[in-house]
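REQUEST FORM: STRUCTURE PREDICTION
Request ID: SP-0412
Submitted by: Lab K.M.
Chain count: 1
Length (residues): 133
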Amino acid sequence: MEYPANRGLETLTEFQKFLLDRKLVPEAKVSFFAYWVSRFLHYAQRHDVTTTEYQESAVAGFLDDLRSDKRILDWQPRQAEDALKLYYFHYLGKTKTQSGTARCFCLTPSIANTRTPPENGAGNMSFPRQRFQ
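STATUS: Completed
RESULT:
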């Protein structure tokens, strides 16, 4: 799997700046979150899916593709999902409508346990939940 480390801040620059400015993701993890959004945007383009609004079915298809890829570790689809939620609901300010009621979906509880490839040994991301409110 290709990791975003070689892309630096070139991937979704404004989204990364947003995450950093609001301290939504630890600095060392920001490029990984942008990487997942970038992969989803490419996935959506290949599947003729509009990306201007959050489409749960498209996100589910993307995550299913990740889960079926033997090179993807178990925690990576969760991190990708959290990245997409940050991108759509926090950065773009989109809402997801369910039963006619618009509401903002927050990050999954698993984000506190989201991991990225080891930089200097394996480690869990751990940061206060209030950063996502």
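NOTES: Confidence is low (pLDDT under 50) at residues 1-9, 98-106, 108-133.
Reviewed by: T.R.
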